[in-house]
Amino acid sequence: MNLPEAGALLAAECARYTELGWMRGTSGNLSVRLSDDPLRLAVTASGLDKGELTASDVVEIDATGAPVSEGALAPSAEAGLHGRIAAVSGAGAVVHVHVLAPVLAAERWPGGVELRDLEMLKGFGRAAHDDLVTIPVVRNSQDMQALGDAFEAGWRADTPALIVARHGLYVWGSDLRQARHRTECLEWLTRFIIEA
Ligand SMILES: CSCCC(=O)C(=O)COP(=O)(O)O
Ligand SMILES: [Zn+2]
Q1: Which of 83, 92, 155, 174 is deepest in the core (most CB within 10 A)?
Q2: Is a pLDDT exceeding 80 seen at residue 131?
Q3: Ligand-binding site membership of 96 (annotated)
């Protein structure tokens, strides 16, 4: 996939999340893998209304989140965490949304949000009757190295999500569609345990 193709996909995907109310204001950011070796991602540009992106509102970054070339647009302020997640997990796409339920769940269970015996776990890539699925929670930081270290310390290959406390949700998958399906299911799951 080249950068303009990735940009068109990311813009369309952001519009869907905005419709759901999960990218309020200028919140949220998405990335998709462009190449493996060296690792390159297309990430949404920083500070824009994510519901109004065009195919050119993306930036090519390396595994550290740094732009690979000079350009007018800055990559997402959270590009470094996208790069780290993609590098560690092998994900093809990473979603970050400011959806409320996971953040509320992390406020209630700051040591990790536990889910068990719920059919929607299947949509998250787990069995409905898995013993226990724990979504890791990390403290918020403006330092992407610190956030990346915290992510990596709690990372498990079978749990493609991370909640950043008082901030938002990260979910990843093999491509943008799988990451979206997982995000939608995890939003349902965390809303369920909050409301239950
Ligand atoms: C009101 S959004 C604050 C920044 C943030 O958390 C976010 O997700 C958007 O940052 P970006 O640099 O990707 O626009
Ligand atoms: Zn954010």
Answers
A1: 83
A2: no
A3: yes
